[in-house]
Amino acid sequence: MRRRVLTTLGLGLTALLTSLALPPSGAVALDDDWRSFLPANALVPFQLQDIRAATYTYHEPEAATAAGYAPVTECVPNMGHHYGKSIADGQDDLVAGEPNLLVYAPLTGGGQELVAVEYASRTPATLFGRAFDPPRDGVPYYTLHVWVWKVNPEGLFHATNPRVRCEN
What we know:
By secondary structure, the chain is an alpha+beta fold. It contains three helices and seven strands.
């Protein structure tokens, strides 16, 4: 009896872990082998799955605006168009599964694709073991980009991505 319970538990745990590793139904896969771009922090892949699960419905900017996000920038070179919902007052207001901004890159021939999320705080903050970038270039907030939908050769948390261009 004990062996059967352990075997059943093991199979159930394997199924659960396998389902966590897959993108949610209907999600768009990353464009390259994203695992090679992950930092050594073992929790980050699970946190990235949480972000992807929370944002996969926003692949179309219209879905983001329907959920309360609004365009806040024109296309920023090596970033894209930012759609914002809120700015955190500080560390306690940040939730990994609820990014403050969604970042869209222009597509050739028109349209936009979701490429990253961004977190913004009025005070210094950290998420995923990473300190936010300090205010710069006229933006008065501490920010952290996470390129969860498009691989960034500069790094998962780098502010800019050379693969994102504003011109079509």
